[in-house]
Amino acid sequence: MRTSNQPPAAPEAVPADDSVLELAEGEQWFAVHSLPSREIYAEGHLKNQGFRTFMPKRHKTVRHARKLTTVEAPFFPRYLFVVLDLGRDQWRKVNSTFGVARLIMSGEQPQPLPCGVVEALTASADPRGILHLGERLKIGSQVRLLAGPFAEHLAILEHLDDVGRVRVLVELLGRQVSVSTVRRDIFPLR
Question: Per the structure, how many domains does the chain have?
Fold first, then answer.
């Protein structure tokens, strides 16, 4: 109960259910390629079948009829992640799920993701799955460029401002070159 001098309390965020994301012995994360614009649809159908999934999201600004709106969008368009134990789970059911194009395969078996990749993403996500990568950025830390002509290059964060612009040092031809980009186009590495 609150007294008359105190403002009403802000609603608390629902904590993420960590048990959904913890892996048991034999379980691994796998990438699922969805049909175009069907990531959320595929995720829902996989969950209905009892699979544990994670789809990282981001805020995206969309322009429609001269109006700007911010929506939640997949961080990796057409991809989401699913937990499987290949010895226990009927993983072929994933490929026949509505909204799914296919599991990413290596020959005849699904290709597991390297340990720590999805765990790093879940650690940077809020309970709704929205990634907040900018909060982990520190001057001098190593980052990966996600877009632009230097996409997938590693760089060192040199400058970070309040409006979302960043400057990074990229190694090119044996020397470091300063490149400007936006905060959403870099991914902090641990």
Answer: 2
